[in-house]
Amino acid sequence: MAAGTISPLPVPARWGVVAADPLPVFASVFQGFMELHRELSAEKDRTLDLTRGLMERRQEVAELQSYVRLLEEKLAEASARRPDVEGWR
Which residues does 18 contact at the CB level (< 8 Å), separation at least 6? Predict the structure, then answer.
């Protein structure tokens, strides 16, 4: 073998691949991995966006619940100060 050349790796027969030059096979596999990587990255971004949106909604709900409790307390105080009136309702 000449200096600077790479000998082809042995490919198991069960792979069904007969290639004197493994570079095209490796390139194809690498392309597949890169496509999977892009899909995984996109899915991760979608998951982060959905999680961020969910956290924002939960924060809004917590703020609204706090506001409702505040209004209920004010209503209870106002009801306690109001004199009872006959026939009111």
Answer: 11
The pLDDT tens digits for 29-42 are 999 999 999 999 99
Instruction: Please report, for residues 6, 36, 72, the alpha-carbon distance to residue 40 in angstroms, rounded to integers and kept in the order given.
Output: 33, 6, 48
Q: Is the pTM of this model over 0.70?
A: no
> How far is Cα 85 from Cα 89, in angstroms, rounded to an integer?
9
Q: Half-sphere exposure of 77 toward its Cβ, with a 13 Å CA cutoff?
A: 6
- The 10 Å CB-count burial string (b at 16+, else e) for 19-51 is eeebeeeeeeeeeeeeeeeeeeeeeeeeeeeee
What is d(CA 39, CA 45) in angstroms, rounded to the nearest whole number? 10
Residue 87 vs residues 6, 21, 80, 84: alpha-carbon distances, Å: 101, 98, 17, 9
